[in-house]
Amino acid sequence: MADDYFEYRHTVGFEETNLVGNVYYVNYLRWQGRCRELFLQQKAPAVLADVQHDLKLFTLKVDCEFFAEITAFDELSIRMRLAELGQTQLEFTFDYVKVTGGSEVLIARGRQRIACMRGPNTHTVPSLIPEALAHALEPYTAQGRALTGRAA
Rounded CA gap, 102 and 1, in Å? Predict the structure, then answer.
């Protein structure tokens, strides 16, 4: 597989399934958030420090399209790629891949749009994407090419 994604490996637990036995849809969104958090922890710790000060990463939009069901103890690879990098917003794509032995099956695909904001909660305003975040994201472009459109 290509190295242009950040991967979060996950084993589905019983608590993530519904009465029928398949994974409850909201967990796919939780896994997107977890993948994003782990990316920041592992690849952009300076951004996490900035979040503890006044940087806010607002999720503006999230979606997920389902292709197949999964159940408890299925092994997943959630693969995050950068789809778009603007001045103050970015968008990720997520591939949910069931990994069984040597085979892989795409079971869902999602997207997430995020805005960078700063300031107190009553006066939060858009902020440029931190350079540390833009730099950490460079290897994870969806098209595997250099990012364009960034301000100098």
Answer: 12
Site of tokens 């782990």:
38
Nearest to 38 by CA among 48, 29, 28: 48
pTM: 0.87
Is residue 137's pLDDT more than 80?
Answer: yes
All structural domains of the chain, each given as residue ranges with its CATH number in brackets, are 6-139 (3.10.129.10)
User: Per residue in 39-63, pLDDT tens?
Assistant: 999 999 999 999 988 999 999 999 9
Tell me the DSSP string of 60-87. EEEEEEE-S--BTT-EEEEEEEEEEE-S
The whole-angstrom separation of Cα 46 and Cα 65 is 32
Question: ∠ CA 99-100-101 to the nearest 5 degrees?
Answer: 120
